[in-house]
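quick one, 136 residues, struct below
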Amino acid sequence: MLKLWIVALAFGALAAGEKEPPGAVPGCGGPAEKPKEKNYGTVTDTNSCEKRYLEVKGKPVLASCMRHCPRKNASYPLRNGERCLQFMKKGFLLERADESKNTCRLGLCLFGKCRRLRNLYPVMCTVPQDKEDLRE
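---
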């Protein structure tokens, strides 16, 4: 019985020495962190390779001229001449509340890089949800 009282007193002393109530897990109960904004959506194919996309008027356009394959730890350039978009974020000086804050410039893929076309105005673009393409 004496041992039981000693254990109970030791546990009480340990619990009294903590600043937080017992059972509180660090990091819980605080405000949830806001997820970071993405600059592109990804489409994963059957080989687990990813392509990055943006949308213009509801149509997907490449955001990167590279295909990333994490399983093989490699990246491959896409075909030259594919249309692509360069993402530009307008973080300030928004004149209208209904205007998208994301703008893109149209370009063409050339040896794995998106080369911007000259004399073209920026277009409004959106970041699509991530998808899986299960076609072979």
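The two ends are 72 Å apart (CA to CA).
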